[in-house]
Write a structure and sequence with these properties.
The complex is a heterodimer of chains A (209) and B (553). With 209 residues, chain A is an alpha+beta fold. In chain A, the strands form 2 sheets. In chain A, strands 2-3-5 form a 3-stranded antiparallel sheet. A two-stranded antiparallel sheet of chain A has the order 1-4. Chain A is elongated, with a radius of gyration of 34 Å. In chain A, 19% of the residues are buried. Among the domains of chain A are: 18-46; 80-177, Alpha-Beta Plaits, CATH 3.30.70. Chain A has helices at 15-19, 21-43, 96-100, 141-145, 172-177; strands spanning 80-81, 106-112, 124-132, 151-152, 169-170. Chain B has 3 domains: 3-116, Ubiquitin-like (UB roll) (Roll), CATH 3.10.20; 160-294, Alpha-Beta Plaits (2-Layer Sandwich); 304-530, Rossmann fold (3-Layer(aba) Sandwich), CATH 3.40.50. Chain B contains 13 helices and 25 strands. Chain B has helices at 19-25, 103-116, 134-143, 178-187, 217-222, 287-290, 317-329, 346-359, 386-392, 401-409, 448-452, 492-502, 512-522; strands at residues 3-6, 9-12, 49-52, 62-69, 74-81, 84-85, 96-98, 160-161, 166-168, 192-195, 202-205, 228-230, 242-248, 257-263, 268-274, 304-308, 311-315, 336-341, 363-366, 398-400, 415-419, 438-443, 455-458, 467-470, 476-479. Chain B has an 8-stranded mixed sheet with strand order 17-16-23-22-21-18-19-20. In chain B, strand 14 (257-263) and strand 15 form a beta hairpin. Classes of the chains: A alpha+beta (209), B alpha/beta (553). The interface between A and B is medium-sized, with 25 and 20 residues.
Chain lengths: 209, 553
Amino acid sequence: MPGKTKVLKKPTRTLADQSYLVEVVKGLGTTLKHFFQGTGQMVSGRVPNAVTDPLAEGISTLSYPEEKRAYSERWRGVHRLTHRDDGSPRCVACLCCSTACPAQCIYIKPGEYPEGDKRRGYERYPVEFVIDELRCIFCGFCVEACPCDAIRMDTGTHMTAFDVKSDFVYDKDKLMSMVSQHGTQKSENPRHEPGDSGHPGIDRLHGGH
Amino acid sequence: MPTFKLDDIEIPFEKGETIIQAAHRQGIEIPHYCWHPGLSIAANCRMCLVEIEPGPGQRAMMLDVLKWDAAKNDYVVDRKPKLQPACQQMAGEGMVVRSESSHFVKDARAHVQEFLLVNHPVDCPICDQAGECKLQDYYLSEQHTPKRMLDEPVHKPKATVFGDTIVYDAERCIACTRCIRVCDELVGDHMLDLRERGNRFEVVVAPGRKLEGDYTLMTEHVCPVGALTSSHFRFKARVWTLKEMPSICPGCATGCNMYIDVDLRELRAYRNRPRDNEHVNKFWMCDDGMMTYLRESEGRVLKASVRKESSREETTVEAALERAAAGLKGVQKGWLAVLLSAQASTEDNFVMVEFARQLGAPLYLSAKGPWKGDEILRNVDQNPNRAGAVAVANNAKVGSLKDLLHAISAGQVQAVVGLGTDIDADAESLAVLSRVSEVVLIAAHDGPLAARASVLLPAASTFEVTGSFMNVKGIAQEFRKALPPKGDAVPAWDLVARLGRAMELDLKYRKFKEVRAALAVLTPAANPERVPAADAPSTPPAAPTTPSTATNP
């Protein structure tokens, strides 16, 4: 069935179109119009001043990496081993963290306190405590698993970029040297030592029974 | 066979058996601490209490009790049946016993469990028993409730050294007296006893003595909680990272069944544990057997080596085999001697015998010298497989190492192919080996014999291969591969077969099951597959046995 035919008119190009010059001048005109309009509004104070306002206080951008943002309390950074009052690790080498670790990046070699030590029998301690920070996925399971609040991830620091792979393997001394965001090497949770006055325990010699 | 009903399940029993024994044999576990199938009945933990319904025409024995009524906010008078310890109560024909189905029993267990934990330190994170502790298991299955006692628990001595092998923690102890009964009944030496009563009790060693003897580790093995710990295993590993591998103790000719607990991440054996087998070791092992896992990594031959002049040179297994084959080819027929080993598996010795038969070589057997045996488990013969090595020789004459050294000094031997380094001879008497042109030794461990070898080939230890031992009673038992071979080590039978092929002999064995199949045809008595699986439960259904409370002499 023959339909109605519509004939389209071919667009024509004038000399002005073909020379481009007129359109360029028109475009520049728009740019300049906005330039003078904007500057005028800024100078007259009708819009924020993009040049002077960032220099004022209270803005939310930072000059990273010179300036660093403080992380939230629960942000998981590089691990640290917390200290007791006498500077020894709170860790009792129970291997709960290495059991919980899904990346299997924690190695602990437990040891026993020697005969005569007041902690002998009550506790053991880590002879070696090694975390491979490259393997670590920073899930925080080790912190959750720890019954002694001995391992924490509240240092607020990233992993440093080392040149050598072995530098990423943190040993006990390195982990014990880390400090928390608040600058402490201890934990706020109290800890009672066997034999301390604060220890709730009483033994055969000192007890009333 | 008479039967009784336990929670509506018919349980057959033999006359004189207790309820818990009969149920245990059927694979039904009634919670218990102090009862052990291999020990006498103490009935002191009260965990296995069950309700026994009165017989027809009988009245139930009921007790008046006070029960807390939350609605009245007061105690009310109530009655409950008198429960009986299943470990002590003899089973009777037609008896109706309620365990899981009785709420009185469930209540009693929860309360017994709470009592046992009243003074417990709950130091599970640093306790070696955690993960295989009955207190943990029964807390989860029977108790659920938190501790109600608010007072400070009683504190008692910790880390008391009982002897060279055992460390005791009185706070974790539940006074089940299993360890005391092991000393009394298995060893027959009353070294341990219970002191004081109530919450002050504590297990002590007899004054002036320490826990000693050949079965001290069994006290730790039977301990259902973490009170007794082995000083060797103490703090070394957590049990949940270990995997148990069924094996046979290579310590003596008794062939005790055992588990090797290995850490598959570190590929290391951490301890041995007895595996129940009524016909061999019942429930026990001796201390030396328990420590055989140490030898697995000590003094191992990890690389093939060849002697050059006065020094040894490490080389590949292939190169060493070529060198050995070249050295042995020059030896005239009949001038080669083959040395079997009573420490090696039946399969290794079997292929060695095949090798010797094709070369017409006489057989000799190296073995460790005798040690102090006893009437309990330890056989005087320190070698796990003397019977197997002799059996695969199929009536051929097997001389001793002394005979071999004698033959060498008489000038009747030009070359020796040997298995193993465990010998009953001093290094000086081996000096005659320098008269022999070639000594090819396939060994897992270093030793004076290995030092004399001109070609030393690294064999896998018995922890690293599947194989079998035939014990002194003639029972062939299979042990399974627990760890991958260390270094360049390969199974000894494979090395013998490859050496044979390099010498153009007809030794086709390339897979272990081919060796086993040939063994089953040629020496069926030494084939472990003809006996029921050794890792079956403690009381295999075969041959009626006496109640296992019977103790060793």
